[in-house]
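ok trying again, last paste got cut off:
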Amino acid sequence: MDRGWYSSQHMNLSKNDLGVLLPAVALVMIGVAVQATGRGMHGSLVASETLRWVGVLGLAVYAVKRRTLTPWIFVAMVAGAEIGFDAPGFAVGLRVFSDIFLRLIRTIVAPLILATLVTGIAGHGDLKGVGRMGIKSLIYFEVLTTLALVIGLVAINISKAGVGLTLPASGGATETLAKVEPTHWQDFLLHVFPDNIAKSIAEGQILQVAVFAVFFGIALASLPAEKGAPVLRLCESLSEVMFKFTNVVMYFAPIGVGAAMAFTVGHMGLGVLVNLGKLLLTLYAALAAYGLFVMLPVALVAGVPVKRFLAAVAEPATIAFATATSEAALPRAMEAMEALGVPRRIVSFVIPAGYSFNLDGSTLYLALASVFVAQAAGVPMTWGEQLFMMGTLILTSKGVAGVPRATLVVLLATAATFRLPTEPIFVILGIDALMDMGRTMVNVVGNCLASAVVARWEGQFDLEELDEVVAEGLAD
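nice, full thing came through this time. structure:
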């Protein structure tokens, strides 16, 4: 199936679309400005709220005209933020809908990875080619995460966001956090290999499922054709079913995403943007710099069509941003990359592996946050000491992308390893949800880009027909 419909459907905006979209965005922005300048005046507050909701309705009209899922997810994010701001008590109660969406997605991830990875390896027929692709992927992951590490270090050393911070008083919670054991490379290496595949699937251990699928696919590819064919057909059918399952679940995505945004704003309030704003701005500036100075040049050098790529990743990136969970965006990211032109066998290998080895956003954040902790505690660290800490983080940060705010656990373990106080981490907790949204989005986009780059290296980009089930889901 031709992929031209996909890029044109997601990229082209008619004059009528812009005639609805631009005024709606303008109304929302004017409403925000009135809210900021009204200084508590009742009339200004009512006018501000009215303008914002009229703008949200305008965005909904735009989404209806576009007839695709991505605009609805965007509208749900804006509406969720508005509900969280206007009715925080009600918004906090909406969390159940975001939890339902995440549960549905988690039922998809492990079977999808297992089926697609086994099919990709066993159906490929060339085990040497699979090994070559794996080596290229790991080299790419290491280079990109190292660059993310450097950008994070440079950003926090320039902004010095932690210097002069007033720490909260120590308490029992601090003592409990201080007991987190440091993570060693042996623990990570052992955790890679599953001792029970059913347990790994039940717990959503993506890396363990991927390792099992690799060995299973190699064993299946080694069997005579008459014995391996039935199992291969079963895995192919299972992957098709899981993609179809994804298409069904994604109809619930706007509700889940909107509820997640409503809970975040309702629980924390927009005022949290003022607290620790310097740290928050440092992170987002560093993430933007990483996208502009690392990801964009990589895409251009590899020959990835940037406009088509941005159109393809818009929906999974939006889901990742709103839910702060890479796992929630994984099924749609795999479909989007296949629609872009990356063969399924490459998508099913690179993206799941990237979820443990290519956490660009999380690596950048951990570099920034760990030095922030040292700055806030008044502990001077030389560049050599910072680089040694970052080398440790490269190992200890593996496998955290699928769990919201799991990077805090790594941060606590790092503090214990390098004898840093844990009190500054309490400060980060206040805005961690907002930082998690940005770094998770970069994780997802980075892994999507990795699959496209590897496909280019393998000379397999945009050569295969698009699967009808995938096309059906992306057309909705």
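cool. The chain has two domains: 1-67, 68-475. Residues 68-475 form a domain with the Proton glutamate symport protein fold (CATH 1.10.3860.10).
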